[in-house]
């Protein structure tokens, strides 16, 4: 691995910072619901116009042919600034189509993603199939030129705003569970699809239940081969787990906590707002972990740039990054004391309630995209070569 940046990469990082500073208002992240969604879509359109939404894709599909390292720099700086990137279409569904879709599917969907014309959500988990995703029961039955889908998905992030969903279904109930699954692209406006928001601890409806009742989807919308969708979805999950964003999400909170810790208390005693050897150790530990997580994320991008396919390496990055986010929030809220439990708007809240929000929001981080236990299993079997069972 190369641990330094060349002149072009340094210059590109500065370009990204300047673009974000000019086009994205950090205060937008405090908005909720439709207003936030509209702001994100407008910003993504600006990214698309600048050629940065899908910069590492092949040019024939609307990409810029940029390197994976440049894509990683863009994602890292965007996350530092709490600015949107490309969403699931750009970082998940699109790369899967490039690898496993047919040319007709690529020509239909990839340019629309690259030009920020459509947004995607992911239909994987079910009420009884979370960590054991291959046990999913949503059925797709062949009927002429279509498949008819019936079932339920849960934790569908952003479904209330998405135009399309990429969804796993069972097409052969007699096959071993990993071998009877097919992968479809379905337009969210298709008759028979309904959603029900799930309000989170943060009072935000980011997750949803998604119901399929006799939903007809063209057979041409299947990604890959029938009953082989599990293997396509596994690659899609690798893309989801491989980002630098999990490390980068911890950085703005940590930096604001560090600045807050340097303040003197309001009583004029000269003491710091946050003081003590244990708290200083917590801050030091978090900085060390941030740098470890950064190098793990860089490793994945380095592998991709050398035409290697990260697998357990993505799981290592995802596992460490999400647990870092939780430790960062837990340490911070404990350092703030009782006031750390207050939400934004409370009279005596420190840091505008940011640590309270982070403490609740990061609960799902070690569950979404595969639990920490699942990541450890992948690392053990595929990375260390340990036996199953």
Describe the structure in your own words.
With 389 residues, the protein is α+β, with helices and mostly antiparallel strands. The protein folds into three domains: 7-85, Butyryl-Coa Dehydrogenase, subunit A, domain 1, CATH 1.10.540; 121-227, Beta Barrel (Butyryl-CoA Dehydrogenase, subunit A, domain 2), CATH 2.40.110.10; 242-383, Butyryl-CoA Dehydrogenase, subunit A, domain 3 (Up-down Bundle). It has helices at residues 7-23, 33-50, 68-80, 87-100, 103-114, 229-241, 245-261, 277-305, 312-336, 354-361, 372-383, and strands at 120-123, 139-143, 146-153, 164-170, 181-187, 193-198, 207-218, 222-223. Strands 1-4-5-8 form a four-stranded mixed β-sheet. A four-stranded antiparallel β-sheet has the order 2-3-7-6, with no helix packed on it. A hairpin with a 2-residue loop joins strand 2 and strand 3. The chain is globular and about 75 Å long.
């Amino acid at each position: 691995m190369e641990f330094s940046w060349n002149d072009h990469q340094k210059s590109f990082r500065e370009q990204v910072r300047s673009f974000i500073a000019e086009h994205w208002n950090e205060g937008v992240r405090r908005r909720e619901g439709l207003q936030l969604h509209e702001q994100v879509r407008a910003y993504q359109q600006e990214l698309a116009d600048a050629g940065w939404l899908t910069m590492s894709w092949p040019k024939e599909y609307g990409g810029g042919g940029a390197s994976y390292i440049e894509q990683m720099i863009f994602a890292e700086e965007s996350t530092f600034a709490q600015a949107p990137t490309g969403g699931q279409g750009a970082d998940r569904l699109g790369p899967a189509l490039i690898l496993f879709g047919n040319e007709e599917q690529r020509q239909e969907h990839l340019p629309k993603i690259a030009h920020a014309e459509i947004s995607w959500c992911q239909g994987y988990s079910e009420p009884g199939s979370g960590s054991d995703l291959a046990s999913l029961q949503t059925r797709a039955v062949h009927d002429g030129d279509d498949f008819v889908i019936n079932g339920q998905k849960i934790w569908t992030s952003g479904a209330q705003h998405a135009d399309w969903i990429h969804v796993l279904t069972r097409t052969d109930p007699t096959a071993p569970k990993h071998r009877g699954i097919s992968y479809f692209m379905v337009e969210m406006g298709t008759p028979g699809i309904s959603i029900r928001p799930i309000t989170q601890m943060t009072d935000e409806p980011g997750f949803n239940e998604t119901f399929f009742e006799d939903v007809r989807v063209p057979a041409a919308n299947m990604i890959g081969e029938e009953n082989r969708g599990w293997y396509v979805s596994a690659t899609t999950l690798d893309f989801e787990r491989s980002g630098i964003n999990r490390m980068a999400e911890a950085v703005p909170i940590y930096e604001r906590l560090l600045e807050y810790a340097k303040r003197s208390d309001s009583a004029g005693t000269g003491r710091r707002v946050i003081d003590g050897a244990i708290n200083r150790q917590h801050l030091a530990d978090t900085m060390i972990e941030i740098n470890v997580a950064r190098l793990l994320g860089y490793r994945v991008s380095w592998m991709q740039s050398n035409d290697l396919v990260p697998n357990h390496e993505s799981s290592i990055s995802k596992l460490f990054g999400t647990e870092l986010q939780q430790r960062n929030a837990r340490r911070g809220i404990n350092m703030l004391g009782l006031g750390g439990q207050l939400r934004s708007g409370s009279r005596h809240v420190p840091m505008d309630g940011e640590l309270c929000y982070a403490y609740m929001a990061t609960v799902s981080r070690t569950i979404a995209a595969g639990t920490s236990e699942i990541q450890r299993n992948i690392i053990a079997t595929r990375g260390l070569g340990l036996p199953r069972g």
